[in-house]
Amino acid sequence: MTQPLSEIRKQIDALDAEILELFNRRARLAQEVAEAKLAAGETDNFYRPEREAQVLQRVRDLNQGPLDDDSVARLFRELMSACLALEKPLTVAFLGPAGTFSQQAAYKHFGHAVQAVPLPAIDEIFRAVESGDCQFGVVPVENSTEGVITHTLDSFLNSSLGICGEVSLRIHHNLMGKQADLAAIRKVFSHQQSLAQCRRWLDRYLPGAERVAVSSNAEAARLAAETPDSAAVAGETAADIYGLAVLQRNIEDEADNTTRFLVIGRLAVGPTGRDKTSLLISTGNQPGALHRALAPFAQHGISMSKIESRPSRRGAWDYVFFIDVEGHRDDAGVAEALRVAQAEVSFVKVLGSYPRAQA
Ligand SMILES: C=C(O[C@@H]1C=C(C(=O)O)C=C[C@H]1O)C(=O)O
């Protein structure tokens, strides 16, 4: 026999009061940790991504349901974000304006208690973090449908910043606008990446509409709101912000369309046991050099999850390689492989070791 509604609600109220009390007890402990860090001489940074990753992994492992692991991790993500902001909210630059997937990625990684700063270009995000105006930046680096975002990789060539984290975000695109009749839509605005991720859908359902590439999805939504007989391809939050109706959901061509973002900054992140290390390698034009640089990783059983070559910009047909390997630079195998690789090729730079993205 189920209990009367009023009885169940009474129990929920009692639990909420307990949860609230526990939230605040947790927050006070986080404040104590901050004081301990201050006492140890750390004045400008209380944020520990490796610890946060471990907290999130632990609650996933402990979770018995009925809430699923992702929901539980999301709740704890926000709880930690709020605890940390009690000291001082982190400042995080993202590729704006408001409503972009980069903003969504920033909130997914840091929670909502950060000061998120929209900037109009990837270069500006690098500059804002280099100058210290923002502590971290979030930039897209590759998409599962369209491949690498070369501009982000190239920015590391002239930057002293490293990688402090990665975020993986399922990207759902929506057609949005004020004109509900698809046949009347003459222009579709979006970021060039998004237009490419929805190419087949657009060919099929909007064959006569001109595709106009603009600086971001959110900018596309803004333009669609003020241009008659137009629409935008963007994420759902952009529809809310710019007052557009979602005309068709999930129009991306690939069902698992996912974008990986990097968190850039100056913080050296400790190991968690589930880490990734990003390297920048320049071989010069010697035969077999890349092979010699990579062989030590294979010998230590370290898998390489990615390799991308880019022009070095130091002469025609000279390349640099962006390489991701599993593990942390402080792990014995990775450290030894790095030592050997460094002796083999002209230049190996560790861009960062950081916790692997969670779902
Ligand atoms: C409380 C700490 O500091 C910060 C807050 C955390 C939290 O709320 O759990 C975790 C890591 C840090 O970002 C800590 O280092 O343990």
TrEMBL record:
InterPro entries linked to this entry: ACT_dom, Chor_mutase/pphenate_deHydtase, CM_II_prokaryot, G/b/e-P-prot_chorismate_mutase, Preph_deHydtase, Preph_deHydtase_CS
Keyword Iron-sulfur listed: no
Span of domain Prephenate dehydratase: 91-266
Pathway assigned in UniProt: Metabolic intermediate biosynthesis; prephenate biosynthesis; prephenate from chorismate: step 1/1; Amino-acid biosynthesis; L-phenylalanine biosynthesis; phenylpyruvate from prephenate: step 1/1
Catalyzed chemical reaction(s): prephenate + H(+) = 3-phenylpyruvate + CO2 + H2O; chorismate = prephenate
Any one GO CC term of the record: cytoplasm
Coiled-coil segments: 5-32
Keywords from the named record: Amino-acid biosynthesis, Aromatic amino acid biosynthesis, Coiled coil, Cytoplasm, Isomerase, Lyase, Multifunctional enzyme, Phenylalanine biosynthesis
ACT domain: residues covered: 278-355
Subcellular localization(s) per the UniProt record: Cytoplasm
Subcellular location, principal: cytoplasm
Annotated EC: 4.2.1.51, 5.4.99.5
Domain spans labelled Chorismate mutase: 1-91
BP-aspect Gene Ontology terms: chorismate metabolic process; L-phenylalanine biosynthetic process
Pfam families: ACT (PF01842), CM_2 (PF01817), PDT (PF00800)
UniProt-recorded Gene Ontology molecular function terms: chorismate mutase activity; prephenate dehydratase activity
Described purpose of this protein according to its UniProt entry: Catalyzes the Claisen rearrangement of chorismate to prephenate and the decarboxylation/dehydration of prephenate to phenylpyruvate.
PANTHER family documented for this protein: PREPHENATE DEHYDRATASE P PROTEIN, PREPHENATE DEHYDRATASE-RELATED
Protein name: Bifunctional chorismate mutase/prephenate dehydratase
Protein species of origin: Methylogaea oryzae
